[in-house]
Structures are given as C-alpha cells and as structure tokens.
Design a protein that fits this description.
Layout: H1 2-29, H2 39-66
Helix pairs in contact: 1-2
C-alpha cells in the first residue's frame, strides 16, 4: 500500500542521513583526514552501502505504488 511504501522511503532516507552524519562525525574526530583502512570508516561505508540499497528499493516501491516511472 502507498502508506507503507511512503513510510519505508522516509525511514530509508532517515537512515541515509544518520549514516552520513556518522561519516561527518568521524571526519571531524580525525581532524579532516581519514585513512581509507580505518576500521570505523569501513563499518560506516558498509552501513552506507546497505542503507543506500534499501533506500533505492523503497524509492522504487514508492514510485510503483504511485504508478509513476522515475
């Protein structure tokens, strides 16, 4: 249903904001430089990738429920 699709989309967008906030906080904590092999960066990167995939799925479901092609 459209309400479930909209809710899933909003939740996925919030998770994306959270992940990017964590990335910014890590960058600030490391003085503006992060080693690509930093364990926290790797964790955030994985989280961001998974969250983006869920966001894309939620976005597609929302468009489908709206009967609109992006």
């Amino acid at each position: 249903n459209i309400f479930d699709a909209a809710r899933a989309f909003a939740e996925a967008a919030t998770r994306l904001d959270d992940a990017t906030g964590k990335l910014k906080a890590l960058l600030d904590a490391r003085g503006g430089r992060i080693d690509p092999e930093d364990p926290q960066l790797k964790t955030i990167r994985t989280e961001l990738q998974n969250t983006f995939e869920k966001f894309a799925e939620a976005e597609a479901a929302l468009w489908k429920n709206l009967n609109v092609r992006p």
